[in-house]
Amino acid sequence: MTTFAKISQVAHYVPAQVIENDDLAQLMDTSDEWIASRTGIRRRHITKDEETSDLAAQVATQLLQKSGTAPETIDFIIVATITPDSAMPSTAARVQAKIGATQAFAYDLVAACSGFVFALSTAEKLIASGRYQKGLVIGAETLSKTLDWSDRSTAVLFGDGAGGVLLEATDQPHFLGEIHRTDGSRGTDLQSGVLGLSSPFSEAGEDAPYLKMEGRSIFEFAIRDVTKTLDDLLASQGLTDEDVDYYLLHQANRRILEKMAKKLRSDIRKFPANMAEYGNTSAASIPILLSECVEQGKIFLDGSQTLVLSGFGGGLTWGAILLTL
Ligand code: ACO
């Protein structure tokens, strides 16, 4: 029998502390009006004492509880993150320990805002191989620790949070198509966590830990390259916009979603958005949105809807998955 993968449960978790645009205006020369009108962001959740693995473990625990799954039956855990607790152990290994998934192998996947989509694609192949039955795929970030809080052009855009899915083996196809892309030649348009060389045997390198972004160039990249990829993905399956119930896109900027919807000749109501509440949470944004849409009764886990999930950002990376849920 051929094995396929299916998203059988979704969950999200964000830190309790809420920072409003007006709170940021106390720290830097900005305003609620500027931030909200340029981005659609009104507030973000910022961690006080929880690390990325704490957020991810909360999601993992919810996934297990909601689905009645025993932790020792999980075969693998992939955490997509650019803000791990540490390079080693990985955030996924920490989650594995925290939830007692004793039989699971676990690793992090680093692809910025495309991280969740790339991780989901990888996990789908693991399940479809027939070797593994259950996996957790989580996007989790504490971007607040990588921001330069004196730089108003980036600090206002991002937030912390985590979301994820339980992926299980099934006998019906749910993943219908995908396109994943990377253009490393444009990588410096968006970067963070640069650790310079520092051994006694090397020339001294320069550290650049904080997130830096060429905002306008990333904006144009999203409208041009990502929209083309969404078009190509639908065409590759002989589908059109009419066949898609919802586009769950990375939540960077409300204006990006509006421009993409227009270019795709689609209805903006098919593009759920929650950046007003969370800002850009990088790898966590798509699973947080998916989990909220399920909670709100907009999206069902019964295989009746066709969705496009698409992430885009640092790398530059971008990717899209067409699936029924
Ligand atoms: N408050 C007030 N003014 C500001 C702020 C702020 N927070 N930030 C910038 N400005 C000013 C600038 O200094 C500039 O002033 P000037 O004209 O006097 O020089 C003016 O506002 C316009 O700045 P722009 O950068 O041109 O503003 P723009 O309209 O392009 O919006 C933004 C900037 C919101 C960042 C937009 O370019 C954007 O959303 N880009 C895409 C971001 C994105 O998609 N990221 C996804 C990937 S993230 C990841 O992968 C981790």
Give the helix/strand layout:
Blueprint: E1 4-13, E2 18-20, H1 21-27, H2 32-39, E3 43-45, H3 52-67, E4 76-80, H4 91-99, E5 105-109, H5 115-128, E6 134-142, H6 152-155, E7 160-170, E8 175-182, E9 190-191, E10 212-213, H7 215-236, E11 246-249, H8 254-263, H9 275-278, H10 285-295, E12 306-313, E13 317-324
Parallel strand pairs: 4-5, 4-6, 11-12
Antiparallel strand pairs: 1-7, 2-3, 6-7, 8-13, 9-10, 12-13
Terminal Cα span: 21 Å
- Text of the CATH class of the largest domain: Alpha Beta
For the largest beta-sheet, the strand count, sense and barrel status come to: 5 strands, mixed
Number of helices: 10
- Overall shape: it is globular
Order of helices and strands: EEHHEHEHEHEHEEEEHEHHHEE
- Distinct small-molecule ligands in the complex: acetyl coenzyme *A
The CATH architecture name of the largest domain reads 3-Layer(aba) Sandwich
Q: What would the average pLDDT be, to the nearest integer?
A: 97
Strand content: 15-25%
Taking pLDDT < 50 over at least 5 consecutive residues as the criterion, the unreliable ranges are: none
Give the total of domains: 2
Helix content: 25-40%
Per CATH, what is the topology of the largest domain?
Peroxisomal Thiolase, Chain A, domain 1
What does this structure look like?
This protein is of the alpha/beta class and 325 residues long. The chain has two domains: 4-173, 3-Layer(aba) Sandwich (Peroxisomal Thiolase, Chain A, domain 1), CATH 3.40.47.10; 176-196 and 207-324, Peroxisomal Thiolase, Chain A, domain 1. Helices cover 32% and strands 24% of the residues. The chain contains ten helices and 13 strands. It has a five-stranded mixed beta sheet, with helices on both faces. Helix 3 (52-67) packs across helix 4 (91-99) and helix 7 (215-236) packs parallel to helix 8 (254-263). It is globular, with a radius of gyration of 19 Å. The two termini are 21 Å apart. The protein binds acetyl coenzyme *A. The site of acetyl coenzyme *A has 23 residues, from helix 2, helix 6 and helix 7. Residues 30, 34-35, 38-39, 112-113, 152-153, 156, 190, 215-216, 218-219, 222, 252-253, 256, 280, 282, 313-314 line the site of acetyl coenzyme *A (ACO). One of its GO terms (molecular function) is 3-oxoacyl-[acyl-carrier-protein] synthase activity. Residues 234-324 form the Beta-ketoacyl-[acyl-carrier-protein] synthase III C-terminal domain. Keywords: Acyltransferase, Cytoplasm, Fatty acid biosynthesis, Fatty acid metabolism, Lipid biosynthesis, Lipid metabolism, Multifunctional enzyme, Transferase. Its EC number is 2.3.1.180.
